[in-house]
């Protein structure tokens, strides 16, 4: 738990993914069908093997993964209160992988704000 190990109790947590074919997302965390529906919808919006794509060096999911990442988010900012992320009841943070066979992904976590004085 990166956040729990920090002395900051009030502030902002930023997350940044250092990749162009995956993204970060805050979304429904109670029902897995919401995540599946989002995945299916985005796959329909950005299909593989489109004749427009020329960037296909790493396979048919190469350019679609970049487009999906461009349509979503590379960073998130989440308020921190009493040492806890202020996510809504049903919200969860996801690293959304857009490749079929991903490599290692790096997410930078920055916690800033007021520290506990005691």
Question: What does this entry look like structurally?
Answer:
The structure is a single chain. The chain has 118 residues and is α+β, with helices and mostly antiparallel strands. The protein has a single domain, classed as YjbQ-like (Jelly Rolls, Sandwich). Helix content is 20%, strand content 36%. It has two helices and six strands. It has a four-stranded antiparallel beta sheet with strand order 4-3-1-6, with no helix packed on it. The longest helix is centred in the N-terminal third of the chain and has 14 residues. It is elongated. It starts with 7 loop residues before the first strand and ends with a strand. The mean pLDDT is 93.
List the helices and strands and how they pair.
Elements: E1 8-17, E2 22-28, H1 32-45, H2 62-71, E3 75-81, E4 84-85, E5 91-97, E6 107-115
Antiparallel strand pairs: 1-3, 1-6, 2-5, 3-4
């Amino acid at each position: 738990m990166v956040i729990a190990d920090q002395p900051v109790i009030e502030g902002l947590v930023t997350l940044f993914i250092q990749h162009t074919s995956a993204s970060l997302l805050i979304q429904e965390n109670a029902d897995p069908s919401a995540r599946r529906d989002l995945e299916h919808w985005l796959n329909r919006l950005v299909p593989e093997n489109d004749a427009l794509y020329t960037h296909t060096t790493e396979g048919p999911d190469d350019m679609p993964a970049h487009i999906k990442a461009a349509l979503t988010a590379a960073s998130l900012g989440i308020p921190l209160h009493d040492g806890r992320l202020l996510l809504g009841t049903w919200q969860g943070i996801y690293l959304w992988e857009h490749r079929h066979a991903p490599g290692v992904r790096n997410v930078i976590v920055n916690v800033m704000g007021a520290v506990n004085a005691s």
